[in-house]
Amino acid sequence: xxxxxxxxxxxxxxxxxxxxxxxxxxxxxxxxxxxxxxxxxxxxxxxxxxxxxxxxxxxxxxxxxxxxxxxxxxxxxxxxxxxxxxxxxxxxxxxxxxxxxxxxxxxxxxxxxxxxxxxxxxxxxxxxxxxxxxxxxxxxxxxxxxxxxxxxxxxxxxxxxxxxxxxxxxxxxxxxxxxxxxxxxxxxxxxxxxxxxxxxxxxxxxxxxxxxxxxxxxxxxxxxxxxxxxxxxxxxxxxxxxxxxxxxxxxxxxxxxxxxxxxxxxxxxxxxxxxxxxxxxxxx
Length: 284
Description:
By secondary structure, the chain is α+β, with helices and mostly antiparallel strands.
């Protein structure tokens, strides 16, 4: 008897993050599988491929907590823990939890449902950070969602797919971790692009607001924008160049940063700025 594929092409195309490269290629063929994996893991996110979206991000010096919204309007949390050599992602496996540990908030409202393999995998993908450890210690009891957990692990460990594509992702991330040297009024200082929160034009100079302090430079903002091209910055205003990593939201012609800073976005620039931010977050 001829072996029938476990999934159909429609199922794969409707939820592509839920399949390994091998599972895809057996159903839709090598060429289409390769093209789809390139789209999933080597290009900016395509909204139609995602079944979860980033709702909020809470950042501290060594952790980032992501609140994701699911297709059924439920919410889950994922935590990225920064390490010297990369980072650990603490992933959720269920919405809610039935165990009811007294020290845990996840089970307060009881168990709602299991997460799919795709929803588990996307939590890692949407982090957009260098990840070298994954722990299943977020919402839910992972072994109570055993089949989907194991399926997600197979996808995350697929050496022909995600590990290969992670090289490109890490290279992209390393652009932002590249050491940049600037000749500030305060002296020559080296910074990572990630350390720059925003740059603002003030009189005849530009001021860098960074994780390490505030620095001034006599250089045009156009020149600085060109130097920081493809490193996650957006020109929010003629006088502002902002690192999108630090944006919490853009609405009503105002950009809000994690520092609480609010930057007005001109009407003529608003649609383009918002689109760039949505692309950066993987929501378009």
